[in-house]
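Board notes (copied after class):
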Amino acid sequence: MGAPWKDAAMIRLEDYDYTLPPERIARHPAETRDESRLLVVERAGGRFEHRRFREIGGYLRAGDVLVLNDSRVIPARLYAHRHPGGGRVEVFLVNEIEPLVWRVLVRPGKKVLKGERLIVEPGRFEGIVADYGGRGERIVRFEAVGGHWKELLERHGHTPLPPYILKARKSAHEAADDTAEDRERYQTVYATKPGSVAAPTAGLHFTEALLGELEGRGVEFARVTLHVGPGTFQPLTEERLEAGELHEESYSLEAPEAERINRARLEGRRIIPVGTTASRVLESACGAEGRLAARSGLTRLLIAPGHVFRLADAMITNFHLPRSSLLLLVCAFAGRDLMLRAYREAIAQGYRFYSYGDAMLIV
């Protein structure tokens, strides 16, 4: 499960805080994926360089292995009407327990009771609240009458944009829901396995052309899968920190991909996870001897300062929320002082933050 980190009680969330001007939150993606900005952070010397993401090849070497999370975002936000009662509710899919049975979040939550029907499309796409889950969740058994579940979900579901993007758009007097652009751009170009309800955002900057260019330079790719859950947006609490665990997410690593990464490690080539999700798969699947084996399962691994990374020589990531588990992860990799200084530099230089924001390469 990866090397444990120590002294959880010594980590204070206020030490991983920073102030971000609201205008620095990216409400929309860059016009072209690889036109986003790239802050290159050198750990050894503490230097910064400012580039465009399309220039990332200049920092990669032949033989480097980029580890990509190929999870695909599903249209996880649904709108339904309660029966009886008729009130409108938002239904946010969390994870599928068994076919057509989902753990969901509902809003407003207190009014949605066990036994009620949630009607998305009358007679075709409905669900019944089968039980209560933890943390205000509901267990809903869906019925996809006269059509396939995936088709109905694609038709009625909305892109599960993070709450801070919706809030920022509303503050800017924009439409506060997803658009056709979001359906395409809140998704990596290499996403193939549906299951995430939030995007692995570090990969949003890659285009097919850029991936082809890097492959032509001798860069290799390994694919892992981690289905990102809504817990990625939940504030990290002192209690969670003490427990040393995060929300539960499913992951998988296939044998050919594990062997590709193991071979690179044996040959002294760099392994570069694209994003915190790919990093968590590597650390969750790494055995005590430092090797990967094909496996799938659930991970609650919290990576924080003190954690010893076994399979990351560099990292591609976005800019993360204050006091978040994602910020703790990059601080564990590059050091808290350097990361917070990099964040201050990015704010001063006008970088765009969070899911649709700019990128960072830590070398």
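Comment from the instructor: Residues 77 and 312 are 34 Å apart (CA to CA). The chain has two domains: 8-73+180-362, 77-156.
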